User: What shape does this take?
Amino acid sequence: VDPLHYLVRWNNTEWTQVADFNSSVRCTVPYDDGSGTKLMVGGDFTTVGVPPNNQPYVYASYIAEWNGTYASDIGHGVNGRPFAFTKHNNDLYVAGSFSRADGVPVGRIAHHTGSTFERVGSYDFFSDIYTLTSFGGQLWAGGNFYVNSGTGYNRVARFDGTNWSAAGDGLNSDVYAFATFNNELYAGGAF
Assistant: This one.
């Protein structure tokens, strides 16, 4: 039996292989774009296939979707490693170390419209975004960024649907995780 790798599922008895990615998976989220729920997958991979189902390998530039049987690319993907997905106001967002999504300049974070990607706000992040969450009606980003196109954000920023803004004075080192607990936002990292 080949060893399991990159993306597996638990069937209440054992781990089983889902699809054959050619490199690591870093983030996943279930998402329904109106055509049924799929598992969105991001990581270091550039191809994915499902040999047990005789699906040929397809080019998937760092992101793909899994419908429960087959994997497919998401447009032309992104040009760098994704670290986080989140759902915000029923929409899908992805962030990481990429500057383009499906050929569109996005500055480390992109909104997936269901058919393509678009930038989020008018500013670019110039360093990696490691985590995303939806909290208080806003989209939150955490990472190792200090400045977003001239505005100081100190590793945490929030988007109100139109503009990015700082969250207080920010934090003094990288932010790797967000969670909501008892209606409060928690951040974890190296600070």
Notes: The chain has a mean pLDDT of 91. The longest strand covers residues 25-32.
